[in-house]
Structures are given as C-alpha cells and as structure tokens.
Amino acid sequence: MPHVLILGGTTEARAIAGGLVAAGVRVTTSLAGPTDQPPAGAVRHGGFGGPAGLARWIAEHDVGAVIDATHPFAERISAAAEHAGVPVLRVERPAWHAQPGDRWERVGDLAAAAVAIRGRYSRVFLTTGRRGLGAFAGVDDAWFLVRCLRAPDPPLPPRHELLLDRGPYDRAGELALLDRHRIDVVVTKDSGGTATEPKLAAARERGLPVILVRRPPPPGVPAVSSPAEALEWVHRRHARAQHIRGVTRRRS
C-alpha cells in the first residue's frame, strides 16, 4: 500500500486517516497547527514552505498519494502535489443549501461581508473562524459576538466579545445564544457539514438574515464528497497498481 499524505485536520481527514490506518496503510496527516483531536497514524505540524516545499516533502518521504481534506476555505496547495508526480484527491464536503424561510445574502469574501454589515446591523454573530478578522476591524458601528476555536490574532472589531467554543452545536443552544445577545445578523462562511449548521436553523427560526461568504474556486483536482469515497479511491488505485505490476512481471 502507498504512503498516503492527508492534508487537513477536519472531521473528514480524521475519518480517512482512521480508515486507512485500520486497513494497514501508512498515513501521515499534515496539520496547520496544534489539535486536541489528533488523527490516527503519523502527524506533522506546520506548512511546507509553498508548492516547492510540498513537492520536496512528497519525494523525500516516498508518498504515493495525496488526499486534500482541508477546510473548504483553507489555502489551496493540493494542486501543487500533481507536479510531484503523485495522484491527488480533494475531499470537498457539500455546501449548504438554502431552505424555505432562509434570508441569505451571499458575498465574495470577508471584506465584502464587512461592507454588508456597516450601517445595516448593530449586533453581529460572527462565526468565520479565527483568521481574517481584521476585515471587520473598521466596522465601528456594530457590536460583534466572535466565536472561534482558539483566540484570534488582532486586529479585531473594536466592539466585540470573544467566545471560544468547539462544535458540534445544537439548535436549542444556538437559539439561546442568539436571544441572549440580541443578535440581528449572522455572518459565516459556507463551510458545509452538520457540526455548525444549527446556527443556520436558529437564524431561520428567528427570521434573522445570514451573510454567507462564498467558497473560493476549487483547486482543479479530482474531488469526492465523503471519506468513504476517498478510502475507495485509495484502495482502487492500489489494486490497479498491483495489477499493473503483476502484468509487468509476467511479461518479463
């Protein structure tokens, strides 16, 4: 079985690592930072130093396949692995879809979300993660409840309260949060998945608008939507390689 490099610390990445390790596959998961939920197999922390660094690491560690299971808004580096001559697969969780009663306003990036808030809303539930919050540092006419996993680096909105918390969340808890802080708009990224989706249900129930940041363009590599499909992809490629080696040996 090939050495598989998994990019990302998402729920999907952990599921793929666990499945491959259980099947006897050598796995290394690359994480951007520390985590309190380490995946199965080997783990490395920190970046690669760009595409060239990733290609060098792949060659030095005899990687046979790369699975990009990073967050939909993470830096897109997986396409660079193709230049190292190894197959690459992207695991892209399905985006959220609006339901009856949703009041979604889609914007292109965090800067556009900040523009959409200014002069329109006064109490914002901001759940876009710990990176890029400087985009809201100039919004001084609104108060922000900023929820993220770890403390973000400044700059932050001038009027804010920081809530450090980890999902999954539930509808009742999200409703209570909106009511307690008198939220009048929810701002989030279109991350997909079920862990943080209850905030959208809560906003729908309260009739609140949601400013939803669109995903960046996909990295241009083959993609699947679930860990099960990723596991099948690895095993299918291994079986094909075994068959080719067998045919080559018989011909020689």
Structure description:
There is one protein chain. This protein is an alpha/beta fold. It folds into 2 domains: 3-94 and 221-251, Rossmann fold (3-Layer(aba) Sandwich), CATH 3.40.50.720; 103-213, 3-Layer(aba) Sandwich (Rossmann fold). It is 29% helix and 23% strand. The protein has helices at 11-22, 51-60, 110-117, 171-180, 198-206, 227-251, and strands at 3-7, 27-31, 42-45, 63-68, 88-91, 103-107, 123-127, 143-148, 160-164, 185-189, 209-213, 223-224. The strands form 2 sheets. A 6-stranded parallel β-sheet has the order 3-2-1-4-5-12, with helices on both faces. Helix 1 (11-22) runs parallel beside helix 6 and helix 4 packs across helix 5 (198-206). It is elongated and about 60 Å long. It starts with a strand and ends with a helix. The relative contact order is 0.16.
Give a quick set of tags describing it.
252 residues, alpha/beta, Rossmann fold, 2 domains, six-stranded parallel beta sheet, 6 helices, 12 strands, 29% helix, elongated
Distance between the termini: 23 Å
CATH fold type of the largest domain: Rossmann fold
Structural classification: alpha/beta
Mean pLDDT: 91
Low-confidence stretches: none
In CATH, the architecture of the largest domain is: 3-Layer(aba) Sandwich
Biggest β-sheet strands, sense, barrel:
6 strands, parallel
Number of helices: 6
SSE string, helix = H, strand = E? EHEEHEEEHEEEHEHEEH
Query: Strands across the major sheet, in which order?
Result: 3-2-1-4-5-12
Radius of gyration: 21 Å
How many strands in all?
12
Q: Per the principal axes of the C-alpha atoms, what is the gross shape?
A: elongated
Strand content: 15-25%
The total number of structural domains is 2
What fraction, in percent, of the residue positions are helical?
25-40%
| CATH-defined superfamily of the largest domain | NAD(P)-binding Rossmann-like Domain
Task: Just give the CATH class of the largest domain.
Answer: Alpha Beta
